[in-house]
Amino acid sequence: MRDSAHLLIVEDEPVTREFLAACLEKEGYVVTRVECGAEMWRCLDAAAVDLVLMDINLPDEDGFSLTRSLRQRSDIGIILVSARNEDLDRIVGLELGADDYVVKPFNDRELLLRVKNLLRRTRRQRQEEEVANSRYRFHGWTLDTERRRLTSPAGDVVPLTNGEYQLLSVFVRRPGRVFTRDQLLEAVSSRDWMPNDRTIDVLVNRLRRKINESSVPRMLVTVHGVGYQFLWESE
Ligand code: CA
């Protein structure tokens, strides 16, 4: 089935812009091309857009600043298209609220995979937000966020500490999203509990053991130099 989602490309460099657009149109997506932030806002005001692919160096406002403003007012999927292959840039982009990034030069298969995954994620999120009783299922596991209960594929309740529960609930709510350690730290800290940087790695390892990850994790994966990402296919 072809996906006719509406994608918005914000890119001032014509060759990259047309390459992106051609890849996406070939898959059946509806693509709008703009060259700067001002045009992006005009397009978003005028039409329903499912996902934005944004260059970082733009003629007016840069992609980081646009990401921050866009995230403040919308849950729309955002992929940053970066010419700089530096961890710092990726972390800055993710912390400002981008969902994912690709680094130029990228190949079309990688790009399409990221677009497809993000569309699936944002749609599922929307559906899940509508479901009042919040149950998240992954590889046979169920996390019930109302009862704060994790159930294994065999049907056993697996006890979680408060920190483990909070961390897992952050991951299941945003499957596929890359989180930096600082973001996770912020998400699991509370008035009674102030974890430090190392705690995140310790918690992740404890969670991995509880959800029976093997020595090569397939759900809770490390994103080298950045943080962690929770992956699962919809069931
Ligand atoms: Ca540019």
Written account of the structure:
The longest helix is centred in the middle third of the chain and has 23 residues, at 108-130. A hairpin with a 2-residue loop joins strand 6 (135-138) and strand 7. The protein has 2 domains: 6-131, 3-Layer(aba) Sandwich (Rossmann fold), CATH 3.40.50.2300; 135-230, Arc Repressor Mutant, subunit A (Orthogonal Bundle). Helix 6 packs across helix 8 (197-210) and helix 7 packs across helix 8 (197-210). It is globular and about 55 Å long. It has 235 residues and is an alpha/beta fold. The protein has helices at residues 14-26, 37-46, 63-73, 87-95, 108-130, 162-173, 181-188, 197-210; strands at residues 6-10, 30-34, 51-55, 77-82, 100-103, 135-138, 141-144, 149-151, 157-158, 178-180, 220-223, 227-230. Calcium ion (CA) is lined by residues 12-13, 55, 57-58.
Short description:
This protein has 8 helices and 12 strands. With 235 residues, it is of the alpha/beta class.
Ligand catalogue? calcium ion
Radius of gyration: 19 Å
Query: Biggest sheet, open or closed, and with what strands and sense?
Result: 5 strands, parallel
Which H/E pattern describes the elements?
A: EHEHEHEHEHEEEEHEHHEE
Total helical elements: 8
Annotation, overall tally of beta strands: 12
Global mean pLDDT? 87
CATH topology of the largest domain: Rossmann fold
Q: Estimate the helix proportion, in percent.
A: 40-55%
Q: Quote the beta fraction.
A: 15-25%
Structural class: alpha/beta
CATH superfamily of the largest domain: Response regulator
The global form is globular
Low-confidence stretches: none
CATH architecture classification of the largest domain: 3-Layer(aba) Sandwich
Please give the domain count.
Answer: 2
Q: How far apart lie the N and C ends?
A: 18 Å
